[in-house]
């Protein structure tokens, strides 16, 4: 009989990407971790919510997928949503925000005006706008072309998500502000960011506990080994300083 893993990580995807994205990390995990990667409602084979913008409905739908004895790892929009669910579900052992701050729009990153333009473009042509975003978010990777090729190999060329869910996700990126929630969080919170993330303002990247070198917004694609080492170290001891984790995550 296989031994029960000592720690659990729940991996939560960002806008426009279903849970297949996390397969990029599969071969890098240590054996003592249990890895869960549930889709958000409306992604993959999962039924969309009647009101995909409702955080209360999202909390109810995800309650079995977000156990309190696990580490929640939210990438991009996944981190923003996980933070918003802290006051709607029993909190996790720790929350990891990967490529996300307390809120998304920032005058020195993706501005409110730029996000409004993106939402307008999505309403006009969801398919083309999603395809543009898949390329745009890879701009900070060491080899954007190779990263895009890898992303397409995992996810294909079409968004495996409900259009209403995608539209609601863009509204959530514009509107959710977790600043107050994370001022006095109910669990430890760690912030990780690619050192060249084009979607984060420089000030937000600087506030990260650990900046992944040679990575942009998608370290899952560009730095899978280094990222899994950092996440595994957090799962083993959530209270540890990420300065120590950073040293252990170096090649």
Automatic annotation (TrEMBL):
It comes from the Bacteria. The lineage of its organism: Bacteria, Pseudomonadati, Pseudomonadota, Gammaproteobacteria, Oceanospirillales. Keywords: Hydrolase. Pfam families: Abhydrolase_6. One of its GO terms (cellular component) is membrane. GO terms for molecular function: hydrolase activity. SUPFAM superfamilies: alpha/beta-Hydrolases (SSF53474). Signal peptide: none annotated. This is Pimeloyl-[acyl-carrier protein] methyl ester esterase. Residues 9-228 form the AB hydrolase-1 domain.
């Amino acid at each position: 009989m296989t031994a029960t893993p000592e720690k659990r990580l729940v991996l939560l995807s960002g806008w426009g990407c279903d849970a297949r994205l996390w397969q990029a990390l599969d071969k890098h995990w240590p054996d003592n971790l249990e890895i869960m990667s549930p889709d958000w409602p409306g992604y993959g084979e999962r039924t969309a919510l009647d009101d995909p913008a409702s955080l209360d409905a999202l909390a109810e739908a995800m309650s079995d997928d977000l156990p309190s004895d696990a580490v929640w790892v939210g990438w991009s929009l996944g981190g923003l949503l996980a933070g918003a669910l802290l006051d709607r579900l029993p909190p996790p052992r720790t929350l990891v925000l990967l490529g996300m701050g307390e809120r998304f729009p920032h005058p020195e990153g993706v501005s409110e005006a730029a996000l409004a333009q993106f939402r307008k473009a999505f309403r006009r042509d969801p398919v083309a706008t999603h395809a543009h975003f898949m390329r745009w978010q890879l701009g900070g990777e060491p080899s954007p072309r190779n990263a895009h090729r890898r992303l397409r190999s995992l996810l294909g060329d079409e968004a495996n998500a409900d259009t209403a869910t995608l539209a609601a996700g863009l509204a959530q990126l514009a509107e959710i502000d977790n600043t107050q929630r994370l001022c006095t969080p109910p669990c430890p919170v760690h912030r990780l960011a690619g050192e060249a993330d084009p979607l984060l303002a420089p000030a937000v990247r600087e506030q990260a506990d650990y900046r992944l070198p040679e990575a942009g917004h998608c370290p899952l694609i560009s730095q899978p080994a280094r990222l899994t080492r950092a996440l595994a170290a957090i799962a083993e001891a959530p209270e540890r300083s990420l300065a120590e984790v950073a040293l252990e995550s170096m090649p």
